User: Which sequence fits this backbone?
């Protein structure tokens, strides 16, 4: 290989890197613009051409907090955390029964779990509305906890099962020979090994619960509303104030954004359902 | 090649296929099923029971704004739904939205994943940037696109296109479905990208190097080695993406309200409107049942694909 070819190859690589960066920045530009707008005064938000130079202010972020954002944030945090814990408590034993101690009819059970994800949620919303009204669960955080648990459980079972299948068989056999019962097997032998898989599953559940819109908009209001409900109430009551809307959107998304950034590798593993060997 | 591909999955099938509790009789099978039951019972109670109630409602004429109107009409609602041309439009929109969004976000995601599957300065930062649209609230994303991107006067899209001679386009009323799809694609591309990236990173380096030694070009290597290895990841991406995108609601609710007219109404939004704005419980329930029936037909094929991709065998036999 001549020096010239190497130089050309290096130049080509540099070009691809440049293109990659450019594409990435363009792709997230709407988000970058949201962050910028969140620090603008309303007058700087609506301009033609768009204004890039302005004096940043925290007024909008403070305004969002003043408008009662915190209770919605608390509801989102509660429903997300509690439903994720429930999902893990239900999914871990189920995945164990579907992988390590595979019960008869495993494919049917797995198929059933996945098929529930394919039922359009809208087809059940009316009964859910009526049932939660009769149980006095309308506008109550627990109805969301129950529904988010059911919403994420099938995916969690599938994911956990994939992770369980990766367990070295020797470890399980050794524990079985030692006469370990189900609880000991799960909590002392299996869980430590598949902990990263559990983290990945939990992360996916957190993202889907935090961003869920349909149930929370239809089944909750002022009392149990989550952050998407706050965003909707925000536009209907005041019209669209771009800077404040951007600030609200930023604050509403920030918690799950930070969690997702920190746990990126888990995200990849989780989404591929442990298919990564 | 084939042996490399089926290696890990064959191992997985073996673990499943092992008769773990074959030592016991019928009682032991139930003991083995025990850990599964809580999840199964909970899922049935929360997802199947409401659906059965939906079926029950779908046989009734029941409008919440007309008290005392509730009575059984059996199949009447279904006949009305089939005669409803708006329902058909919503169905067509749902198909277009789902197919286009899944395919485009998969292709863009594949492209981005290929760009990311090399080492270069700032790779971690670029990946972080690219996954972020998946992490923000879809509701926030929808509002963001509606305002800062698509606004006819102050929107960035028209600002960027202006030098190319485009006038002030009101994207949401002139191209409502396409605008919604742009936002949905933007939201789901990172998801597709992450899945493809996982697939790319699971490729064996030796095989790729061997192909290079054999003189296979980039494109040739991609088509004959990378793509086949990616197939189960691509199938998973299509399946999961379709499940979520077919239920799209946030973007339509917040960006176009299904309009203008019903130009951007999909089935979830149409049923929602009939239920919560028209208060027509019977009609919207019938629509829900029809949608479920259609979905199940499509899902049966999808599930078969899924089982092939994951090599799932029956553990008990």
Assistant:
């Amino acid at each position: 290989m001549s020096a010239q070819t190497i130089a050309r190859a290096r130049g080509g690589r540099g070009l691809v890197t440049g293109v990659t960066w450019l594409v990435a920045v363009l792709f997230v530009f709407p988000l970058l613009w949201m962050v910028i707008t969140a620090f603008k005064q309303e007058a700087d938000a609506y301009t033609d051409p768009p204004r890039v130079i302005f004096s940043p202010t925290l007024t909008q972020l403070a305004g969002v907090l003043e408008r009662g954002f915190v209770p919605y944030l608390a509801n989102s945090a509660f429903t997300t955390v509690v439903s994720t814990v429930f999902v893990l408590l239900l999914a871990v034993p189920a995945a164990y029964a579907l992988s390590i101690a595979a019960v008869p009819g495993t494919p049917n059970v797995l198929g059933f779990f996945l098929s529930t994800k394919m039922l359009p949620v809208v087809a059940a919303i009316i009964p859910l509305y009526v049932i939660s009204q009769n149980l006095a669960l309308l506008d109550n955080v627990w109805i969301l906890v129950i529904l988010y648990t059911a919403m994420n459980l099938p995916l969690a079972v599938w994911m956990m099962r994939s992770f369980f299948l990766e367990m070295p068989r020797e470890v399980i056999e050794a524990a079985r020979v030692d006469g370990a019962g189900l609880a000991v097997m799960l909590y002392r032998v299996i869980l430590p090994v598949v902990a990263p898989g559990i983290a990945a599953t939990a992360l996916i559940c957190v993202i889907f619960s935090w961003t869920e819109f349909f149930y929370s908009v239809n089944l909750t209001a002022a009392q149990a509303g989550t952050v998407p409900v706050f965003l909707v109430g925000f536009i209907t009551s005041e019209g669209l104030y771009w800077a404040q809307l951007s600030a609200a959107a930023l604050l509403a998304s920030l918690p799950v954004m930070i969690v997702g950034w920190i746990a990126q590798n888990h995200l990849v593993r989780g989404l591929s359902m442990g298919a990564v060997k | 090649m084939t042996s490399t591909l089926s290696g890990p999955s064959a191992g997985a099938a073996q673990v499943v296929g092992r008769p773990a509790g074959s030592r016991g009789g019928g009682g032991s099978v139930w003991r083995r099923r025990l850990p599964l039951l809580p999840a199964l019972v909970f899922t049935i109670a929360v997802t199947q029971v409401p659906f059965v109630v939906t079926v029950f409602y779908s046989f009734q004429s029941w409008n919440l704004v007309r008290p005392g109107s509730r009575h059984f009409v059996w199949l009447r609602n279904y006949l009305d739904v089939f005669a409803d041309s708006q329902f058909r439009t919503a169905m067509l929109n749902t198909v277009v939205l789902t197919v286009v969004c899944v395919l485009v976000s998969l292709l863009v995601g594949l492209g981005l994943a290929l760009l990311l599957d090399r080492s270069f300065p700032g790779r971690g930062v670029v990946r972080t940037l690219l996954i972020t649209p998946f992490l923000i609230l879809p509701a926030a994303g929808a509002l963001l696109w509606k305002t800062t991107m698509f606004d006819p006067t102050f929107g960035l899209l028209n600002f960027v296109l202006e030098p190319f001679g485009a006038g002030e386009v009101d994207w949401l009323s002139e191209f409502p479905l396409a605008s919604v799809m742009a936002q949905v694609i933007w939201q789901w591309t990172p998801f597709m990208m992450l899945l493809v990236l996982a697939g790319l990173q699971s490729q064996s380096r030796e095989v790729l190097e061997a192909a290079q030694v054999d003189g296979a070009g980039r494109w040739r290597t991609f088509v004959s080695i990378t793509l086949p290895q990616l197939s189960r990841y691509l199938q998973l991406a299509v399946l999961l993406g379709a499940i979520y995108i077919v239920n799209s609601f946030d973007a339509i609710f917040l960006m176009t309200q299904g309009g203008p007219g019903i130009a951007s109404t999909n089935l979830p939004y149409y049923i929602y409107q009939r239920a919560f704005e028209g208060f027509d419980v019977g009609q919207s329930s019938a629509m829900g049942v029809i949608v479920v029936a259609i979905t199940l037909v499509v899902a049966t094929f999808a599930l078969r694909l899924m089982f092939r991709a994951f090599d799932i065998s029956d553990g008990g036999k």
In short: Residues 222 and 228 of chain B are 9 Å apart (CA to CA). The longest helix of chain B spans residues 85-116.
